[in-house]
């Protein structure tokens, strides 16, 4: 049996931008992506703590040490600058492997989205 488990999580980052005129995705500071073990193009679930919206898109790297969290394309309509998000990626793995798997969970500075 295989199960879906949390692989990566960036907990409580603030939206720094929303770009409706982009083809889609979420731009994430590449330092945060590395720390959370998220790769370019990976599916990301976005949970907006301010308005309850949940959506999925894919990750693209933003400039390192920038704190950038920008929702692009249609997803830009689901956030406002300053909204607090939780970003989650999942993996599918064997049930026994999942029992001992430890996800990469990152808690950036809530003021500037940078790693502490």
UniProtKB/TrEMBL annotation:
It catalyses: L-aspartate + H(+) = beta-alanine + CO2. It is found in: Cytoplasm. Keywords: Autocatalytic cleavage, Cytoplasm, Decarboxylase, Lyase, Pantothenate biosynthesis, Pyruvate, Schiff base, Zymogen. GO terms for molecular function: aspartate 1-decarboxylase activity. Pathway: Cofactor biosynthesis; (R)-pantothenate biosynthesis; beta-alanine from L-aspartate: step 1/1. Is synthesized initially as an inactive proenzyme, which is activated by self-cleavage at a specific serine bond to produce a beta-subunit with a hydroxyl group at its C-terminus and an alpha-subunit with a pyruvoyl group at its N-terminus. The active site is at 25 (schiff-base intermediate with substrate), 58 (proton donor). One of its GO terms (cellular component) is cytosol. The modification Pyruvic acid (Ser) is found at residue 25. Its cofactor is pyruvate. Binds 1 pyruvoyl group covalently per subunit. Substrate binds at residues 57, 73-75. GO terms for biological process: alanine biosynthetic process; pantothenate biosynthetic process. Catalyzes the pyruvoyl-dependent decarboxylation of aspartate to produce beta-alanine. NCBIfam families: panD (TIGR00223). Belongs to the PanD family. Heterooctamer of four alpha and four beta subunits. This is Aspartate 1-decarboxylase. The lineage of its organism: Bacteria, Pseudomonadati, Bacteroidota, Flavobacteriia, Flavobacteriales. The gene is panD.
């Amino acid at each position: 049996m295989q199960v879906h488990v949390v692989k990566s999580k960036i907990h409580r980052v603030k939206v720094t931008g929303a770009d409706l005129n982009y083809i889609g995705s979420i731009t994430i500071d590449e330092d945060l992506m590395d720390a959370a073990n998220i790769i370019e193009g990976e599916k990301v679930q976005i949970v907006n703590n301010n308005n309850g919206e949940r959506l999925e898109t894919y990750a693209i790297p933003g400039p390192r040490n920038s704190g950038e969290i920008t929702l692009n394309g249609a997803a830009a309509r689901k956030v406002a600058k300053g909204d607090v998000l939780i970003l989650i990626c999942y993996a599918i793995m064997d049930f026994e492997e999942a029992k001992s798997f430890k996800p990469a969970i990152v808690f950036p500075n809530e003021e500037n989205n940078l790693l502490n």
